[in-house]
Amino acid sequence: MTFHVLTIFPGFFRGPFEHGVVARAAQSGRIRLCVHNLRDWTTDKHRTVDDRPFGGGEGMVLKPEPIFRAVEAIWPERQPGQRVILLTPQGRLFNHAVARRLAQERELLLICGRYEGVDERVAEHLADEELSIGDYVLSGGELAACVVIDAVARLIPGVLGNEDSATQESFAAPGDELGILDYPQYTRPADFRGWKVPEVLLSGHHEEIRRWRRQAALAKTARLRPELLEKPVPR
Ligand code: ADE
Questions:
Q1: Whose CA is nearest to atom 9 of ligand 1?
Q2: Topology of 2-153 in CATH?
Q3: Residue 135 in contact with residue 31, Cβ under 8 Å?
Q4: Which ligand 1 atom sits nearest the alpha carbon of residue 113?
Q5: Tens digits of residue pLDDT in 194-209
């Protein structure tokens, strides 16, 4: 799978893409990461990407022309399986179900919003969807793009060493619903400062361990994320 990122801070991605699962997936050729500098598609001497908002107001807005030009240069004829995603705080909430859906695509192009906003014509006429990674405002879509790429890349077959690790964890229930939180994990020492690991985990009884984990996961979900037990979350 290929991930394109369109940003005014291409250097931002050096760190995140050089570590861990994403870096290994790129090295093994399972994913391809292409970072594009939005300023490369400006036409003026100052390489201007933003302008003042019509109607007045604070801050600057990313102009549509360089963004459209960039996407049309990266994909001159957009094919099925090539999806443009605009990252802004106004987007639909990204979650594991969305990550699973995006992992089916061939290529994603993530547009990182900046400043006070992005000209709405990008959302209306260029992007296939607008996503937010949470109900808070970041200073730009770059961190959000890293989050989306990490969450999607690890669902691509062969990216995680152990295929089971992506199906056991939080939110990984099959079907349309989000799952529940992952069960609590412990490692050695069995007694740390007097806080003991639940006895059952040391017992070697696989069925009892499985039951305990299921119960503990449900209890933790009820305590920290009760809404997950109430309603399916739309994709
Ligand atoms: N850009 C700024 N805030 C964001 C958010 N919460 N999600 C995605 N992109 C953003």
A1: 88
A2: Alpha/beta knot (3.40.1280)
A3: no
A4: 1
A5: 999 999 999 999 999 9
Residues of the chain with CATH 1.10.1270.20: 168-229
Output the pLDDT for position 113.
93
Residues in contact with ligand 1 by the CB-under-6-Å rule are: 87-89, 113, 132-134, 136-138, 140-141, 144
pLDDT, tens digit, 9 for 90 and up, residues 77-125: 999 999 999 999 999 999 999 999 999 999 999 999 987 899 999 999 9
In the chain, where does the domain assigned CATH 3.40.1280.10 lie?
2-153
Residue 42 has pLDDT above 90, yes or no: yes
